[in-house]
Task: structure prediction
Amino acid sequence: MKNKIIIPLLLVGLACTSCTQYGSKSYDLEDYRTTMEFHDNFKVMQLTDLHLGVQGDLQRNLDFVSKLIDDANPDLIVVTGDSFMYGTKGIVDRLIKFLNNKCDEHSLSHPERLTKFAVTFGNHDNQGDYPHYYISRQIQKYVTTDGNELQDRKYAAYLDYEDDNLHGYANYFIDLVDDRTKSTDDVDVKYRLHIIDSNSYHYIGPKYKYEVILEDQLEHVRNIYNNATKDKDYIGMGFFHIPFYQYEELKKEYIESENRNEFGQGEFREGIGDPYTDNGSFRSLRDSNIIAYSVGHEHVNYCDIIYNHSSQNINDKAIFSYGVKSTDGIYHADDMLGYKLINLKDNMTVESFITIENIRENFINYIDKGVYYED
Result:
């Protein structure tokens, strides 16, 4: 892959190169699908903005993340971008192997269920000493066929094809199902988790702004909803790095509201690094049955808020979340380090999922409050 903009940070400033090799191959939807067996209280742990690189204490940061994973005891770890900055091949290898080893450790100690990890990408991930495709290829070393995870000791829920006709390195989805052995005609999909690459930078005149989720990716998601399985009565969730354009208007409404606790939780301490334009990506994804979104990107924002909470039309509503920054890399607030844990319940409807009650009970923002880094 592909038609992805690459912006490496150099010591002398910001330089731009573009990957101009366009893929042309069209793959079946099944080639972007992996499955995990669902159980009530399925735990999705979001880690974000690790910013591992030569300027930080890699071992200390991995030890901290290890502590967080042990605390969360998740079924699925989703890393929502900016895992690296000023990284090297060795640092990339360390993190991916570390995530696989943690999943192996938890899966072997809990044989009744698997722990897997998924990754998407942020604007800083390619600003390192490696080719633009390197991270994707390293993750793919830890991918195996559904059902062979324990046998092969590979736990990456990740699918990508360098020669496909989609922007980005993450356009895959994870179906949480009643039985992984069932066909797509017979399976009961409880939740569908879309792992999406929100790309990186968009060049405008003499400066760069952030890119959007592009139209070919949006069409891919629409196709997934319409054709991937017969079952369409599931709850869809999206995980990516750069927030929607609409996050800015939601922030304004939330911080100015006198009753914010009735439709959200968390706080904002910085601005929104949203895309350079609104290309309709939220509306397109919402119409593709994705009702909750969790992003990274900002380091001192974390929240879970009902977008359009006052609307009488459930199809206009969604949950907008920020993850919790998961290391002290680059900039941070000591009392805003940790992870997000989303508990997925059985027998939820769209109406019961998009409620403040569900947010308060099942969207947990674990904050370490800087205790670890003070040790």
